[in-house]
Specification:
By secondary structure, the protein is an alpha+beta fold. Helices cover 52% and strands 9% of the residues.
Length: 325
């Protein structure tokens, strides 16, 4: 990496890009993250703005209604390849499940939803994705996430140095997520593990590191092995629909209290179990679901309730298919 940065510095006048907010970014990267100014400027000079990234962030799949979103991930092909991935990596997945106390099918489903078991990891250069979203974030969206992506860009620069990644060659999603598990740079730094014991954390080529890192991420966020994720709820006509949160899915009150508010579980559950309620838009109606701590943990990976429900549904289909072999 050092040789690459030296070459970039020699070429800096020819390639320098006048990205908006460059001076403020460089100052923060140096003062808050301990990065070297010359290296930061060299990497920024190499980064390119990509309109296709702005287009993608403006219409994410998570914005689709549930009945459309589900069809993306709950396919026979993704289910069958999930079964194959689980069988091929059974020993590894079991070891991670035991070490981190995370249910095996959830590990498989997350890798399946994120990258189709490593098939689709993204072909955007990470430096381009993070510069585009950190320094050019569109103003017409409902929330400004430029600060988040700017921070991730700084942490990507840290990560590249720490893990020996080629910063101008590393690729991932349009949002800067990387590897088979699609970790953002901050998550890579914090939660990635060397599960194959080779002294490196490689989330592209080491299936062991990917499986272990996904399990560790869920474990560190409080996964409860064997505990429920979600249960269908039946809503009365006068249910407290206004109390359903569209932002936080952390269990807030008990199952019994939700029942008093008009949301009754389709299964027998402990009355004092903490729960939340979500609404999913079906093709011809709405459906309601009680969600528990493990559902909330999945939303730490991706904050969309549709994403968490897709993980749950896919995990159950894969588990059922594997058990039927």
């Amino acid at each position: 990496m050092r040789k690459l940065l030296v070459l970039l510095l020699f070429c800096l006048p020819a390639f320098a890009a006048d990205h908006p907010g460059t001076e403020e970014f460089v100052a923060r990267a140096v003062s808050e993250y301990g990065l070297e100014e010359a290296e930061v400027r060299a990497l920024l000079a190499e980064a390119e703005y990509k309109q296709s990234i702005i287009d993608a962030i403006s219409r994410p799949a998570e914005g689709k209604p549930w009945h459309e979103y589900r069809q993306i991930f709950l396919t026979d092909k993704r289910i069958n390849e999930g079964i194959d991935f689980w069988i091929e990596n059974q020993e590894l997945i079991t070891a991670a499940s035991i070490k981190f106390a995370v249910d095996e099918e959830i590990i498989v489903a997350i890798i399946g939803v994120e990258t189709f078991y490593g098939r689709i990891t993204g072909n955007y250069r990470s430096i381009d994705a993070l510069v585009t979203l950190g320094l050019y974030y569109p103003q017409n969206l409902s929330s400004d996430r430029s600060a988040f992506f700017s921070s991730e860009l700084m942490q990507f620069m840290q990560l590249a140095k720490k893990e020996g990644l080629p910063p101008t060659e590393t690729t991932g999603s349009y949002a800067g997520a990387m590897g088979m598990g699609q970790f953002m740079p901050s998550s890579y730094l914090e939660y990635a593990v060397d599960f194959d014991g080779d002294g490196k954390r490689d989330l592209w080529r080491s299936t062991a590191d990917v499986v272990g890192s996904v399990a560790n991420y869920l474990h560190r966020h409080g996964w409860q092995a064997g505990e429920p994720i979600t249960k269908r709820a039946w809503a009365t006509k006068d249910a407290a629909f206004s109390e359903i949160s569209s932002r936080s899915y952390k269990p807030s009150i008990s199952v019994a209290e939700w029942k008093d508010k008009g949301f009754k579980s389709s299964s027998e559950l402990a009355a004092d179990m903490p729960a939340g309620v979500i609404k999913l838009v079906q093709e011809d109606r709405n459906s309601y679901w009680l969600v528990f701590k493990n559902f909330y943990v999945i939303t730490r990976y991706n904050r969309s309730p549709r994403y968490a429900m897709a993980i749950f549904d896919l995990s159950q289909e894969i588990k059922k298919g594997k058990e039927q072999l």
